[in-house]
Design goal:
single chain; mainly alpha; Rna Polymerase Sigma Factor, Chain: A; Arc Repressor Mutant, subunit A; 3 domains; 0% strand
């Protein structure tokens, strides 16, 4: 039928007749992290697309409209509702795991194991774990949200998170140089100890050891360079 008032009236009538069906389809996706009213609107948009694209050669309208509406709803979930970006592959895993878990829960009245889900989906256990983690990606918790625990009641989540401890770097550096320090000759080891642990000046060390300040300076520079090079070499070998 050509565009015109009669075409528009028929189009509106067809949408009105099939709107209850689109709402029933949307209702199947309730309790999955999306507002039901939003799903009704998305399903209605899918119905309008189905009406506009339908051709008699495609067969029964219902057989064409239902996949179109379901596809529109699934695109809504995929593109609009994830709190964090999730790759398409993981989204597909999520859908398989969600369906399998619902089926197993209904069959055995309990939470299925990772192995049972993997067997039901035909997936590896690591893939099942990825899918289960993706089930939580629709909703995110604000760092300003208050803690629900008894001990932390009224405390913002951000205030309970740890911070970077500068002392950790010092501990790591000390552990890294320990092997090189143990391998130093006694004199160089003593000079480093006096300089960095007893906080003595180069002149004080020179007087105590009977050496010149210039000699102490050269020994410190050479020894520190050797320790640094050995620590870096050990780190590269470990990597």
């Amino acid at each position: 039928m050509d565009d015109g008032p009669e075409h528009d009236a028929l189009r509106e009538d067809l949408v009105a007749q099939w709107l209850p069906m689109s709402r029933r389809l949307a209702g199947r996706y309730r309790n999955r992290g999306a507002d039901l009213e939003d799903l009704y609107q998305v399903a209605a948009m899918g119905l309008v697309k189905a009406v506009d694209r339908y051709e008699a050669a495609r067969g029964a309208f219902e057989a064409f409209a239902i996949p179109t509406i379901n596809g529109e709803i699934k695109r809504h979930f995929r593109d609009s509702l994830w709190s964090v970006h999730v790759p398409r592959r993981v989204q597909e895993l999520r859908n398989k795991v969600r369906v399998a878990r619902s089926e197993l829960q209904a069959a055995q009245r309990g939470e299925p194991t990772i192995g049972e889900l993997a067997a039901q989906c035909g997936l590896q256990e690591d893939e099942v774990r990825d899918g289960l983690e993706a089930l939580q990606a629709f909703k995110s918790l604000s760092l300003d949200a208050k803690s629900s625990s008894t001990e932390g009641e009224g405390v913002a989540l951000a205030d309970s998170l740890g911070t970077t401890e500068p002392g950790f770097d010092t501990v790591i550096d000390r552990e890294a140089v320990k092997p090189a320090l143990r391998a130093l000759p006694e004199r160089e080891s003593k000079i480093l100890y006096m300089r960095f642990f007893q906080d003595k000046t180069q002149n004080q060390i020179a007087d105590e050891l009977g050496l010149s300040q210039m000699h102490i300076s050269r020994l410190l520079t050479r020894t520190c360079s050797r320790v640094r090079e050995q620590a870096l070499a050990a780190h590269q070998d470990a990597a």
